[in-house]
Structures are given as structure tokens and as C-alpha cells.
Design goal:
Chain A has 20 helices and five strands. Chain A has helices at 8-26, 36-49, 65-76, 87-104, 109-112, 114-126, 128-133, 140-160, 163-177, 183-198, 208-226, 234-249, 261-269, 271-290, 297-314, 324-343, 350-375, 396-404, 420-423, 452-459, and strands spanning 410-413, 430-433, 444-448, 463-471, 474-481. The termini of chain A are far apart. By secondary structure, chain B is mainly β. Chain B contains one helix and nine strands; from the N terminus they run H-E-E-E-E-E-E-E-E-E. Chain B has one helix spanning 3-19; strands at 64-65, 72-74, 100-102, 106-125, 138-142, 152-156, 180-197, 205-207, 209-216. Chain B starts with a helix and ends with a strand. The chains are: A alpha/beta (484), B mainly beta (218).
Chain lengths: 484, 218
């Protein structure tokens, strides 16, 4: 096959798809209020921008790479603190990595074929779950980009035997590990797939020396990241010992759901697009089996994708963004199946058949993307809107200014107040307490449901209560002085 | 030290203090604690977190629900979900299929009682399968179907007049299965109009049921 780096038509097609993907990911980014997870990431990033060393804490946080990659972009546009941030600035980071992932597919062209690579790019560009979470300031899009970088670089090393590729693969693995703790599931799934596919291929043995180099580079990259470039060595130890906590959290902690939940979410998002992808996945698996004597990349993807889906389904802890990793791997196999199906058509009508197949999938997929990503991004019926922040909370800053001016003392009390630190980021005097403090002397007091009785009693007369929604069914009570 | 020296020293200290520039005292406030992804809430029929005592609404004996089965009109005559007849059909269940959803921003529904009546109480259920609060709830009674003349406001919790119908003193409240009973104090009128302006969970406006308790005017 032609050297993929010289196949300009392939890169043009992927470039156009990446552009479409970026437009879908970067349009109207302010329409949705900041999710709690996004707000937490924004506050951590704000601390880093303001000069604090990022200290990796495995309890309720992920790795440091998102903040390291976001930091230069924000500095470039003149943002140096949380107070200066806007949601769109942060969400452009996952949008960029989500779209850039499509370009990496080009490095796999000699393993999957040109049509399959372009097909996978098309699916990633417009499929609702992939688009939705590339518009959210969370770790997943960067995580998937790094995983794909590792996969593509390892594949190129296998093809070209140039050491630079193996070093790049090691960097991808190390940084992916330093992005999300769930990377171990990917390594497990990949290992299973390698063991099974290697038995049919002899060249596996030739990988061993390179694997040692790759692992060394990966470990180095992970250590650099977890230690915050040598400023917090405890972070490296925490990255290992943190798995005790992760194992405990995998039990659910309120997020436990049945094993088939991911299927239900994908079905609700768009049954037609899911059915077609599933049929093509079966075809892709069949082709990978029939052509197993070839390079083995499709078989590796199919096996690792199913193993990953099995792992995620078996773990009780489930959130919709976790399904993205197996979805992205398995959709590559679907595209590989579509390529095979198209090949059965007579040569004259083959291009038309490809167009019809693409349109048949894109139309329903684009409709569900439009509905869930743009029209109803926080609707309770949206399968991707998981504990979304409601728009009501956006009234709060203006409400505070109307009642207490631009520089009030704001006391936020309770155990459920996120994402208020984001919404209140421009007020200089805001304090947060889990329990009511000794002195309740704020101009504005905001209390979550668990402490509202005590706060209300202690404030006594002269305070007017009001309500703001944080998430569906979760309220925060606001108290302002009657005289104001 | 003699008295003169002491006096001079005191003046010097006071003068020195007065000469210093005064700045606001800055204290460190506690930072927010980081949390994980919040668990979605599924709590049907939540009791209100504030257990305030609500005095019962007193009505004359023999009043009945005059709104049952009566015609309902609205600012949004093509609701997003459900239809306006649900508001006076007598069903107060919380599930989908029992409520009507009107569009965002300020919306109203209006019940035509068919004849003038003395109205003593109005009970309203917006939504009660989730803890939420409806904004700018305003309830008015009039004999004018346009609500331009002879309008009596019996409930208004729009404390900042953001809906433009006048600032109200009533408090916002969390929706529950008990609904909200409003004392209409025997106000005479044929039409009852209820406003709301979105809620704490969505920008939409919902109604499950409205009951108007009274007697036909003598």
C-alpha cells in the first residue's frame, strides 16, 4: 500500500471531517450551564493559572494533563485566573482534541483501509455521544486522543520500525495514564487482544525489545505528569495507591447501574444510528475473522473494543461518558465492516453505494446530534445529560448584585453547592462551609437542603428566602436581607 | 514621666494612627471543597425542606370546586406536552401524561368559571415528581377576560417585579403533592388567571391541576 503520509486525498478527507467535527464541537458552547465536573475542573485550572502547584489527589479527581494542556491556551488568550474564564474558552480544549482525534486515524490507513478510516472519521465527527462529550470540559476527549495517539504510533512502529514512533507511543500511554485512572482498563483490554491476535502472527516476538522502551518512556511521561514536573513527588505514589480508592468507587457510590445501561443510553440517543452501526460491527468482526491472516489491526480493535465494553459493563459505576472509549474503538470496526460491504457491490455502483450507506447513517445520526447536543443538551430525557446543571443557576450572580451590590460577603453553606464556585467566580468575597459557621454575617447566605433548617433558624427575622435550582431536583436556598 | 510628657506622647500616638491610611480588613474565607460527579436525584414527592407552619385556609361551608371540567385558555395555546384540559380534569398525579407543559418565560393559564362567583380558595399543582420551585407565581381574579380592568391579585411571589405585574410579598415555595392552597378571601370574579415564569429545574411552565373553590355569586 501507498505510504499513508503521501496519500493527500486521504488527509484532505480527514481534514474536512476534522473541520466539520470542530465546528460541531465549538458552536454555541455557552448555551449550557457548567456541569459540576466542569466547574471542579475550572476551579482546579484556575488555581494552577494563579500559580499553585497542581497536587494530584486521587479522591474525586483525575490526572493533571487536562490542566497542563489547557493552561497554555488560556495564557495565550490572556486568561490568568478563574474570574477571567468563560465557559467557551474551556470547552474549546476538548473540542480541539475531539476533532484532532480524527486526523490520527490517517496513521491507521494501512491497517484498516482508506474507506474504513474515512468512515470512522465520519462517525466520530457527527455521532451524538462523541460530539456531546467533546463539548464538555472533562478529561475524556483528551484521554481518547492520547489513547489513539498511542495506538496509531505503535501501529506505525510496527509498519515502519522507526524508533521515534515507539517513543511517541510511550508518551501517549504515559500521558493517557496520567489523564484518567480508567486507562488500566484499556491496557487490560489491549493486552487480551494482543495475546489472542499474537497467537496467529509471528512478528509478536519482534515487538519485545521495543515494548520495553515504550514502557520506559510511558513510565517517565506518567511520572513527569503526576509529579507536576517534579514539584510534587507524592503525586506519583498517590497515582499508584489511589487504585485502592478507585476499586472502592467502582462499586458505584450512587452511580451503580445494570450491566446493559450503556446499550440503553445509546438506544435512547438514536436507535436507527445504533442499529446500523451494530449491523456494520457484526460485518466488521466477520471480516476481521475472515481476513485474520492479514495485519491483525481490525481483529485487535474488535477484541479490545469488546473486552473494554465488557469491563465497563461489568463495573457497577457507570456514567455516560465512560462508554465513549469502547464506542470509539468499536465504531472503527463498524467502518471496517462498511468498507467490506461496499466491496461486494458491482464496481460501477460502488461509489454510489458508499454514498447511500453514508447518508443512510448520517441523516438519523445528525438528527439525534442536533436534538441532544444543541436543542436539548440538559433535558432530563437526554441520555447524555447526567446530573446536569440547570439554567436557573445562571440567574444567581445578577440576583446577588441587585440585592447586595458588586462586592457582597457571600456565605455558601452545606454539602451540595457545586457548581456555585464557578457561577460566583467573579465575586471576590465568597466563603464555603460544610456546616454553618460561628458567624453568619454575610450579605447573602446560600444554603443547601441539608443545613437549611439550622441556617434559617439562626438567621431569624429580617431575611427573605428564595430558591435557585442547581440540578434537577436539587435546590439551593438564598437568603437576602429584607431591608435590601 | 510628668503629665505634660504623657499628654504629648498620647497626642503623638493618636496623630500617628490618624496619619495611617485605612484599608478594609481582609480575611481569608474557606475555599470550596472538590467533589466527584453528583449522583442524579430521583426523589418523588419530596417534602419541603422548610417545615414552616402554614395556617389552614378557612372557607364557608358548602363551597365546591367550580373549575372542574371548565374551559382553560393560555398564553401558549399549543403546549409543548399535554393539553390544557388536563388542568381542570380532576387528576393530580405527578407522572408524565397528567401535566401540561407550556413554553419558557412568563406564561399564563386562565379558567373561565362560566359565571361570576365568590372565590374563597385556589389550589394549584404545578409539578410534584421532583423538588422544584416555580418562579413569579401570580394568581389573579377578574370579571374581565382580558385582565385589564377590575383585577384582584390574590397571590404574588415576584418580589422584584421581573414579570412586570407588580412586586409581590408572598414567598416562593417548593412544589409537593399537596399543591399550594391560596386564600382568595371571597373575591368575586368569573375568570382566574395563573402566571409563572419557568422553574428551578427547567425554563418551562407546568400545570397538573387547578381547583377554584367558591360559590356562584348571589
Amino acid at each position: 500500500m501507498e505510504n499513508p503520509r503521501r496519500d493527500w486525498r486521504l488527509w484532505l478527507a480527514l481534514g474536512i471531517l476534522a473541520l466539520i467535527a470542530f465546528v460541531l464541537r465549538s458552536t454555541d458552547l455557552e448555551s449550557r450551564p457548567m456541569h459540576t465536573d466542569e466547574a471542579v475542573n475550572a476551579v482546579i485550572l484556575g488555581n494552577v493559572l494563579e500559580g499553585q502547584v497542581y497536587r494530584y489527589d486521587p479522591e474525586d479527581r483525575h490526572g493533571p494533563t487536562l490542566y497542563f494542556f489547557a493552561q497554555p491556551w488560556l495564557r495565550l488568550i490572556g486568561v490568568d485566573s478563574l474570574a477571567q474564564m468563560e465557559a467557551w474558552q474551556l470547552r474549546l480544549v476538548p473540542a480541539f482534541f475531539g476533532a484532532a482525534s480524527i486526523l490520527l486515524l490517517g496513521l491507521l490507513v494501512d491497517g484498516l483501509g482508506r474507506a474504513a478510516v474515512i468512515g470512522a472519521g465520519l462517525i466520530w465527527a457527527v455521532y451524538a455521544p462523541v460530539v456531546y462529550f467533546s463539548r464538555v470540559f472533562i478529561h475524556e476527549p483528551l484521554f481518547h486522543f492520547l489513547l489513539l495517539l498511542a495506538l496509531a504510533a505503535a501501529w506505525r512502529w510496527d509498519r515502519d520500525r522507526k524508533w521515534g514512533w515507539m517513543v511517541l507511543a510511550g508518551v501517549g500511554v504515559g500521558l493517557a495514564q496520567a489523564t484518567k485512572e480508567t486507562a488500566v482498563l484499556v491496557w487490560g483490554a489491549g493486552l487480551i487482544a494482543v495475546i489472542i491476535t499474537a497467537s496467529t502472527r509471528e512478528r509478536a516476538a519482534s515487538w519485545l525489545p521495543a515494548i520495553f522502551i515504550g514502557i520506559a518512556v510511558a513510565l517517565s511521561a506518567a511520572v513527569v505528569a503526576f509529579s507536576s514536573f517534579g514539584q510534587n513527588w507524592a503525586g506519583v505514589l498517590d497515582a499508584v495507591t489511589g487504585y485502592v480508592g478507585y476499586a472502592r468507587r467502582a462499586g458505584g457510590q450512587g452511580h451503580e447501574k445494570p450491566w446493559f445501561t450503556y446499550f440503553i443510553w445509546l438506544w435512547k440517543a438514536g436507535p436507527v444510528a445504533l442499529c446500523l452501526l451494530s449491523v456494520l460491527l457484526v460485518v466488521g468482526c466477520l471480516r476481521a475473522w475472515v481476513e485474520r491472516h492479514r495485519d491483525g489491526l481490525p481483529a485487535f480493535l474488535a477484541l479490545s473494543g469488546f473486552a473494554l465494553l465488557m469491563f465497563y459493563s461489568a463495573i457497577p459505576y457507570k456514567t455516560p461518558w465512560l462508554m465513549l472509549a469502547p464506542v470509539m474503538v468499536l465504531t472503527m470496526v463498524s467502518a471496517f465492516g462498511a468498507d467490506w460491504l461496499i466491496g461486494f457491490a458491482p464496481k460501477v455502483v460502488r461509489p454510489w453505494f458508499a454514498v447511500v450507506l453514508a447518508v443512510a447513517w448520517v441523516l438519523p445520526a445528525a438528527a439525534s446530534t442536533k436534538r441532544w447536543c444543541f436543542e436539548r443538551p440538559i433535558d432530563e430525557r437526554n441520555p447524555f445529560a447526567y446530573s446536569p446543571t440547570v439554567t436557573d443557576v445562571r440567574r444567581l450572580p445578577e440576583w446577588i448584585r441587585t440585592r447586595a451590590g458588586d462586592d457582597p460577603l457571600i456565605q455558601v453553606i452545606g454539602d451540595d453547592y457545586w457548581p456555585l464556585p464557578w457561577e460566583l467566580r467573579r465575586f471576590p468575597r465568597v466563603g464555603y462551609w460544610a456546616q454553618p459557621p460561628e458567624k453568619l454575617d454575610g450579605d447573602i447566605v446560600l444554603a443547601s437542603a441539608d443545613v437549611v433548617d439550622e441556617v434559617s433558624k439562626r438567621l431569624g427575622e429580617g431575611w427573605r428566602p428564595g430558591f435557585f435550582g442547581l440540578r434537577p431536583g436539587v435546590l439551593i436556598l438564598s437568603f437576602s436581607r429584607e431591608a435590601l | 514621666m510628668n503629665k505634660t510628657q504623657t499628654l504629648l506622647l498620647t497626642f503623638a500616638l493618636v496623630g500617628s494612627a490618624l496619619a495611617q491610611e485605612m484599608v478594609p480588613l481582609k480575611t481569608d474565607l474557606p475555599k470550596p471543597l472538590f467533589v466527584g460527579t453528583p449522583v442524579p436525584v430521583k426523589l418523588p414527592n419530596l417534602e419541603p425542606p422548610i417545615q414552616g407552619r402554614r395556617p389552614p385556609v378557612m372557607v364557608p361551608e358548602g363551597v365546591e370546586n367550580l373549575a372542574l371540567g371548565k374551559e382553560v385558555t393560555a398564553s401558549d395555546m399549543e403546549p409543548l406536552l399535554g393539553d390544557l384540559t388536563l388542568i381542570t380534569d380532576g387528576d393530580k398525579e405527578g407522572e408524565e401524561g397528567y401535566w401540561v407543559e407550556l413554553g419558557p418565560d412568563l406564561q399564563w393559564v386562565q379558567i373561565d368559571l362560566g359565571e361570576e362567583a365568590d372565590i374563597y380558595a385556589i389550589a394549584v399543582w404545578h409539578y410534584h415528581s421532583q423538588a422544584r420551585v416555580y418562579h413569579d407565581v401570580i394568581v389573579q381574579i377578574s370579571n374581565d377576560p382580558e385582565f385589564k380592568e377590575g383585577v384582584t391579585t390574590v397571590f404574588n411571589n415576584d418580589d422584584d417585579n421581573s414579570s412586570g405585574l407588580g412586586a409581590g410579598k408572598d414567598y416562593a415555595y417548593i412544589e409537593t403533592y399537596e399543591g399550594r392552597v391560596i386564600d382568595a378571601k371571597g373575591t368575586r370574579g368569573r375568570y382566574v388567571r395563573l402566571y409563572s415564569k419557568g422553574n428551578t429545574s427547567t425554563e418551562m411552565n407546568h400545570y397538573i391541576e387547578v381547583e377554584v373553590f367558591g360559590k356562584p355569586a348571589a
